[in-house]
Amino acid sequence: MTTPRTHYDILSQVLHWLTAIGVVAAFILGPEHFGRELRQGLDPATRWDIVTHESLGMLVAAMTLLRLLWLLVRPAAPRFDMPRWMALTSKTTHGLLWVLLLAVPSTALLALSSEGHPLTLLGGIRISEMPLLTHLAWIGWADWGEVHGLLGDCILWLAGLHAVAALAHHVLLQDGVLRSMLLKHR
Ligand code: HEM
Ligand code: HEM
């Protein structure tokens, strides 16, 4: 019989923490009013905060796609004994976080292409046209910049609750949930 896993594999751990840092940093750099400034004709490439925000966000998107692929083949995630409602809440929170990790960058790309702004990334990368997105039938259905900002707030709130829950597991329930995302001591 194999012993049940107590920890996530190292790749899942590294990508989890890099993603967490990336989301928080992108949020902090989500400069207020910057959508309005873009609409007033500001060239985003002239602003380090916008370029860094977009680069971090795209990095988060790339890491999320990689994590989802890894999820299909990686060793099973650790399991802990807990009441049904708690396991269900944890599953739902993870599900929503995955959805937001994809929806936040996607709505940003929709915002840029619907308003005709370039995607500007560190290293002087500038993508002025995104024809695949511009031709989507529903590109004009919403103010995607608004939706993106709102979802950016949601992911921060949800990740905050998720972090508080992880700390509560550690301090109050004293189980191995938080440690499962941290390096294993030999
Ligand atoms: C995890 C990643 C991200 C988070 C948490 C995030 C968060 C935010 C937030 C909170 C705002 C609203 C700022 C404000 O007006 O107060 C915002 C605006 C914006 N972000 Fe992001 N963002 C992320 C990724 C991206 C990416 C990948 C791009 C580019 C492809 C991007 C482009 C923009 C743009 C263009 C706006 C202005 C939208 C408008 O008002 O029209 N963001 N972001
Ligand atoms: C923006 C920030 C964060 C996001 C988007 C996020 C997202 C996620 C996701 C999607 C998972 C499932 C991982 C997988 O199956 O590979 C996860 C697991 C986990 N996260 Fe986070 N997380 C964030 C921040 C944090 C923070 C700050 C903490 C701790 C204080 C934390 C602690 C954990 C733990 C302990 C697990 C594994 C145990 C479990 O929840 O079942 N996360 N996180």
CATH architecture: Up-down Bundle
Q: Characterize the largest beta sheet: strand count, sense, and whether it forms a barrel.
A: 2 strands, antiparallel
Named CATH topology:
Fumarate Reductase Cytochrome B subunit
Sum up the overall morphology in one term: elongated
What is the oligomeric state here?
A: single chain
The helix count comes to 6
**Strand adjacency order, main sheet:** 1-2
Secondary-structure class: mainly alpha
The SSE order reads HHHHEEHH
Helix content: 55-70%
Q: Count the E strands.
A: 2
Unreliable stretches covering 5 or more consecutive residues: none
Rg calculated over all Cα atoms: 19 Å
Number of domains: 1
Query: CATH top level?
Result: Mainly Alpha
Features:
binds protoporphyrin IX containing FE; 63% helix; elongated; Fumarate Reductase Cytochrome B subunit; single chain; mainly alpha
Ordered list of secondary-structure elements with their pairings:
Layout lengths: L9 H19 L5 H6 L8 H26 L10 H32 L3 E3 L3 E3 L3 H4 L9 H30 L13
Antiparallel strand pairs: 1-2
Helix pairs in contact: 1-3, 1-6, 3-4, 4-6
Summarize the structure in words.
By secondary structure, the chain is mainly alpha-helical. It has a single domain (10-76, 84-181), classed as Fumarate Reductase Cytochrome B subunit (Up-down Bundle). 63% of the residues lie in helices and 3% in strands. It contains six helices and two strands. It has a two-stranded antiparallel ribbon. Helix 1 runs antiparallel to helix 3, helix 1 packs across helix 6 (144-173) and helix 3 (48-73) packs across helix 4 (84-115). The longest helix has 32 residues, at 84-115. The protein is elongated, with a radius of gyration of 19 Å. The structure holds protoporphyrin IX containing FE (2 copies).
